[in-house]
Task: inverse folding
């Protein structure tokens, strides 16, 4: 009855509407109508071709780290629709839930509106709005004072910053080594292990060969890193009939569609991989040709226990590592193409030292019974039979289903090969490997497994994304050995250490960086330790700072460990009432938890309101098919008093008189802001933030003079640039002459030398030797044993450090956090559409 | 109370084919649908801060079937199935819910909907969405204002959920035409009706997950019994690598290390 | 958490438990599933919000029901013999080791059926408008001769 009453109640409304309606013509195809329907009036005319929008603009998504191309339809000044850009190399037209919710990100009621200055106690959220002039003056005063006295008193940490080549450069010009982004929280184990082993890495610097892989093993990936490319790839693999194995303690997202879910115990992935290696070695399922040609398996390792050279490569007078040439029966430069190198054996060097090929050390280690599947199975939460079966499947796919492409290519030594022959076993790994304290070695273990079966950048295997591979490791050492007033650093704050001489430590071993990166506590910390910045600034360990400047890093909530403690540190005071962290500047587009803990808030724009570049100098969007980069362009004008963070940094750089940001007469070098910098900044002659459309005429890819019309050229090309590599450069990039020469020409690498894959990682041995008492730079006593233990040139497995320190009986469970599919960072649970989808996810 | 169009031979039945094998439950379909349709034929699709939900034409449910490690996790996208005999239409007292004769799309005319919700009671699939702010019932339109839209390039004339799906788990086409791509896909992959016993003849089809590859491997040798020992033997034979005479066979079996090193010492390799 | 493991602890969906690490503890509701390693508990990342932040209503589910596992993760490892505490990181690269977390779980008392810890709500920065109760986003708007919303309810704020 109630229903009928309700219906009758609505009828009045209905007729009111009808009174205003002109009866449209009855469409021909309309169905018969019930007489009762006559009450309802005429049938509906459906407008099937409405105008979609007034304008279409192409830009780059920022709803996660994928950086997909998007096509934004605008109507009446509002966003009508965001869809994937079909031509874009990353997403090829598709778009995930996050990207599709960009509209709600743009119209979020949490957007900051104007600079804010704290008026109450820190953390109280009491602010007053101030003008930009005042905000910039305050920031310049605070930062200027530091730069004139002690630049390292500025700690500048950015979060999910996609402009790190600018922010790192800014820190370098300012002269503070205390810069990092969120990579230390996120992915540095994976990135460093890859860069030190194969000159590329999972995720950003590489991808599975989705078209040819027959067997795909994914380690520790929930549903991100990356998002759309993995989804596109998985569907290809499945259509091709390949097998997909997901190694992850939790079966959600990608794992749910895997052919086999390996729900192993967290932190034991390394042991699992060693057991696979053990089984493959036992069965001789090893690609020795690949090892001899492309890896350092045959390089001779000096065996001189206790000596300062023990475990280092034997080298010739030019510093080239030696291999044992079986033809000559003598050591020879490993770079020679005409030798027949030994993979096992003990050899006498000319100087009387003994040496063995690194493969021998590797095989001895992993053939040991402690790594047999039977020995590790229980700890991994698996059965030995299952590990052996997976090893057999890997071997089967690699060796019985090899991929042969009729594609001639020329190797590093100039030899032509008629075919490209590949081992179609692809691997991918990310957070579940990376965020463990044994993650670096575990990730290296996976790379060793890939090398042993000859599955790096071959058809069907894991492939480099251009501009990778880079020489191993890629890049110079970190800058910051010395800091001085009004002086830039000697190099970028983040880099790659090759031995103790590259560390940023005082003579007594005290860290030079606030976060203790590149100290004996974390010698290869290529992304810094953002997670320690607030703690160390609060504790004054190794020294206090004056300004903590953060961007897009929600450290007072989900981006910190010990969140409650972090909030206390941010508000903690000295007995004299002054804050332990004296000044905090924070920039964000939204009223995140961190905003309440800032003294000065610089409101950023949304990603649809600014210029940006996705640069080869930073975190590029290249693929195995070739280098690519992209821009963001303003799609909408901000409707509030906010400025793009990058513009603010460039302005601050000019106000502070930083060398990279001012001309000799002191005037701003980039008066047009970030877009000016994107076009005109040159990191090296001819190399700038964007690699496309360079040269004065815009016709030069990679390396060339700045082009005034570069941004227009990008816009005309749907906001990205891409260069498709010729087919003969598609694989074996580490050893492919055509590719290496091309990469030099494009400015992606400096020399066309073969990039030999590092099964055995010599820099680690250098740190270990220092810990064992060799060399001028040695760790402090406290760190000595730690460095000796964990700096093994071949991958090791150890119990995660927290487990080593606690009574496991008291804490019997592992605890993890994973991202839901439709959520990437803290932005998203306030996004009206993504919040709904996560609420539903968690309730279904 | 509302009649259905009379069926005729060769009738177009536009609908979706959803692949449960590749759907990873990412909600791309749901959100992209929301953004297209928020400003589309049935827009806006209201959201309510105080409640956990709003109007969504597409919802993805994730559930587990079975127990223990062998259980299967299924991501199940759900939207209107554009049934051939939709009860949601026939119960409609005003004709607001109707099925188009020309393509079979089930739509709601918001102007004549009185918000009585009879249709949502009648739909066994839960595909109807009542917009409390508008006071009318809404539902999947199969992007009727996109699939025929002459302002869009031809290749973009497909429902938002299909165009955006990163996992290619959604397909759109004429299921009335046995030769269409979608009909063939359904035939090849054993596509099925959701709850056929209800008798509403849903047009949308679901493709079941492909059988999980277990045991040996992929491709042609999928059923072959396979072990690493066999592989070692085959490779040894192929490469003419003989285990050195004199090596203790028992040792080699108990611990392949000794034999392996001897074999490897004999490898002739080139750079 | 794994259903079988939950059963051993006498837990069913919706029960509140204390999750305790060597560092700290949180109180959260349990949800069971099959597809998880039996010795692992897990949660979605970054959904929980502090009340009042992000211009969310102070009673939004993100603040009321959402929680943060981060509270239980220490940025420092337990002390060495000399009292020094290394960061909770990979000793080679300094990567934050937030997946190393180990915990125990204990059923919370009947009287403790809410998430913990809970922090005072954050104030909205000045100048920020109210978050609408009803969101009706529509770009362009279709040209209709009548108002699609026949009866805007009093006291409801809508934004489009």
Result:
């Amino acid at each position: 009855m109630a229903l009928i009453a309700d219906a009758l109640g609505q009828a009045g409304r209905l007729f009111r509407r009808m009174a205003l309606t002109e009866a449209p013509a009855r469409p021909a195809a309309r169905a018969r109508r019930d007489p009762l329907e006559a009450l309802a009036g005429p049938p509906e005319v459906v407008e099937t071709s409405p105008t979609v929008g007034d304008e279409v603009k192409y830009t780059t998504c920022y709803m996660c780290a994928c950086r997909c191309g998007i096509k934004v339809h605008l109507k009446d000044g509002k966003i009508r629709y965001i869809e994937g850009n079909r031509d874009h190399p990353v997403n090829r037209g598709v778009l995930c839930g996050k990207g599709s919710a960009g509209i709600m990100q743009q119209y979020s009621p949490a957007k900051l509106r104007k600079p804010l200055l704290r008026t109450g106690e820190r953390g109280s959220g009491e602010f007053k709005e101030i003008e930009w002039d005042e905000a910039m003056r305050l920031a310049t005063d605070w930062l200027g004072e530091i730069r004139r006295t002690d630049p390292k008193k500025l700690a500048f940490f950015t979060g999910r910053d996609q402009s790190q080549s600018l922010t790192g450069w800014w820190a370098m010009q300012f002269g503070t080594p205390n810069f990092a982004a969120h990579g230390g929280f996120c992915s540095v184990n994976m990135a460093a292990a890859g860069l030190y082993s194969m000159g590329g890495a999972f995720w950003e610097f590489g991808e599975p060969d989705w078209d040819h892989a027959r067997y795909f093993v994914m380690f520790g990936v929930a549903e991100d890193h990356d998002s759309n490319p993995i989804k596109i790839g998985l569907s290809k693999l499945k259509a091709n009939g390949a097998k997909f194995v997901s190694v992850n303690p939790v079966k959600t997202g990608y794992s749910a569609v895997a052919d086999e879910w390996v729900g192993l115990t967290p932190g034991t992935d390394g042991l699992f991989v060693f057991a696979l290696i053990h089984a493959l070695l036992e069965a001789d399922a090893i690609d020795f040709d690949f090892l001899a040609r492309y890896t350092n398996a045959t390089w001779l390792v000096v065996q001189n226990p206790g000596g300062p050279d023990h475990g280092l490569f034997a080298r010739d007078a030019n510093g080239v590592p030696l291999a044992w040439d079986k033809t000559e029966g003598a050591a020879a430069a490993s770079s020679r193409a005409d030798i027949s190198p030994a993979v096992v054996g003990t050899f006498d060097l000319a100087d009387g030292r003994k040496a063995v090929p690194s493969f021998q050390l590797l095989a001895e280690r992993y053939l040991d019974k402690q790594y047999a599947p039977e020995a590790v199975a229980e700890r991994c939460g698996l059965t030995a039979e299952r590990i052996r079966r997976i090893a057999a499947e890997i071997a089967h796919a690699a060796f019985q289903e090899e991929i042969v492409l009729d594609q001639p290519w020329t190797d590093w030594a100039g030899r032509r090969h008629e075919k490209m022959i590949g081992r179609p076993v692809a691997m991918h790994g990310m957070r579940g490997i990376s965020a463990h304290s044994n993650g670096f070695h575990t990730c290296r273990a996976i790379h060793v497994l890939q090398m042993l079966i000859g599955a790096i950048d071959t058809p069907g295997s894991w492939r480099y994304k251009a501009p990778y591979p880079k020489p191993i490791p890629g890049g110079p050492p970190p800058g910051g050995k010395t800091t001085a007033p009004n002086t830039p650093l000697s190099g970028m704050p983040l880099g790659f250490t090759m031995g103790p001489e590259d560390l940023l430590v005082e003579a007594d071993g005290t860290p030079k960086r606030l976060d203790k990166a590149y100290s004996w506590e974390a010698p290869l910390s290529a992304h810094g330790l953002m997670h320690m910045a607030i703690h160390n600034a609060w504790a004054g360990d190794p020294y206090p700072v004056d300004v903590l400047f953060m961007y897009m890093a929600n450290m007072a909530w989900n981006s910190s460990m010990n969140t409650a403690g972090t909030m206390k540190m941010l508000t903690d005071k000295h007995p004299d009432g002054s804050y332990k962290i004296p000044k905090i500047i924070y920039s964000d587009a939204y009223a995140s938890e961190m905003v309440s803990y800032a003294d000065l808030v610089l409101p950023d724009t949304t990603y649809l309101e600014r210029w940006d570049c996705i640069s080869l100098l930073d975190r590029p969007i290249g693929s195995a098919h070739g280098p690519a980069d992209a821009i963001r362009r303003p799609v909408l004008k901000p409707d509030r008093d906010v400025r793009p963070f990058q513009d603010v940094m460039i302005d601050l750089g000019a106000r502070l008189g930083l060398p990279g940001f001012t001309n000799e007469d002191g005037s701003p070098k980039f008066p047009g802001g970030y877009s000016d910098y994107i076009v005109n900044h040159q990191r090296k002659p001819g190399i700038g933030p964007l690699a496309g459309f360079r040269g004065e005429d815009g016709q030069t890819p990679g390396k060339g003079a700045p082009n005034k019309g570069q941004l227009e050229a990008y816009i005309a090309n749907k906001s990205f640039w891409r260069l498709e590599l010729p087919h003969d450069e598609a694989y074996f990039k580490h050893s492919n002459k055509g590719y290496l020469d091309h990469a030099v020409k494009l400015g992606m690498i400096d020399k066309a030398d073969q990039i030999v894959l590092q099964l055995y990682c010599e820099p680690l041995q250098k740190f270990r030797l220092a810990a064992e008492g060799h060399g001028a730079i040695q760790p402090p006593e406290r760190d000595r044993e730690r460095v000796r233990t964990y700096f093994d040139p071949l991958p090791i497995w150890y119990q995660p450090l927290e487990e080593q320190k606690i009574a496991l009986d008291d804490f019997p469970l592992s605890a993890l956090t994973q991202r839901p599919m439709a959520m990437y960072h803290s932005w998203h649970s306030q996004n009206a559409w993504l919040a709904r989808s996560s609420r539903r996810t968690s309730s279904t | 109370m509302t009649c259905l169009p009379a069926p005729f031979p060769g009738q177009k039945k536009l609908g979706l084919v959803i692949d449960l094998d590749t759907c990873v439950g990412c909600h791309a379909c749901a959100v992209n649908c929301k953004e297209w349709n928020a400003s589309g034929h049935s827009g806006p699709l209201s959201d309510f801060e105080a409640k956990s939900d709003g109007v969504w034409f597409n919802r993805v449910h994730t559930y587990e079937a079975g127990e223990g490690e062998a259980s299967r996790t299924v991501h199940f996208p759900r939207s209107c199935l554009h049934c051939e005999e939709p009860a949601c239409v026939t119960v409609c007292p005003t004709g607001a819910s109707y099925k188009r004769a020309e393509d079979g799309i089930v739509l709601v005319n918001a102007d004549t909907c009185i918000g009585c919700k009879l249709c949502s009671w009648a739909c066994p699939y839960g595909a109807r969405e009542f917009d409390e702010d508008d006071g009318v019932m809404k539902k999947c339109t199969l992007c009727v204002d996109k699939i025929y839209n002459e302002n869009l390039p031809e290749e973009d004339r497909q429902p938002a959920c299909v165009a955006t799906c990163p996992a290619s788990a959604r397909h759109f086409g004429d299921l009335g035409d046995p030769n269409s791509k979608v009909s063939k896909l359904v035939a090849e992959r054993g596509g099925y009706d959701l709850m056929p016993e209800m008798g509403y003849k849903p047009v949308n089809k679901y493709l079941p997950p492909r059988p999980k590859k277990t045991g040996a491997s992929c491709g042609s040798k999928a059923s072959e019994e396979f072990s690493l020992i066999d592989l070692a033997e085959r490779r040894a034979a192929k490469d003419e690598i003989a285990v050195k005479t004199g090596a203790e066979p028992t040792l080699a079996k108990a611990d392949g290390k000794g034999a392996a090193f001897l074999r490897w010492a004999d490898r002739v390799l080139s750079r | 958490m794994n259903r079988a493991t939950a059963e051993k602890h006498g837990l069913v969906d919706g029960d509140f438990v204390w999750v305790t690490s060597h560092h700290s503890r949180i109180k959260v509701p349990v949800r069971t599933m099959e597809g998880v390693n039996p010795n692992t508990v897990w949660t979605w990342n970054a959904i929980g919000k502090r009340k009042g932040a992000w211009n969310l209503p102070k009673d939004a589910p993100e603040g009321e029901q959402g929680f943060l596992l981060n509270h239980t993760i220490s940025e420092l490892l337990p002390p060495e013999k000399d009292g020094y505490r290394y960061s909770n990181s990979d000793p080679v690269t300094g990567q934050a080791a937030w997946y190393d977390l180990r915990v125990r779980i204990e059923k919370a008392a009947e009287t403790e059926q809410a998430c913990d810890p809970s922090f005072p709500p954050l104030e909205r920065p000045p100048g920020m408008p109210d978050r609408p109760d009803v969101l009706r986003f529509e770009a362009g708007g279709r040209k209709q001769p009548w108002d699609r919303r026949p009866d805007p309810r009093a006291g409801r704020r809508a934004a489009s």
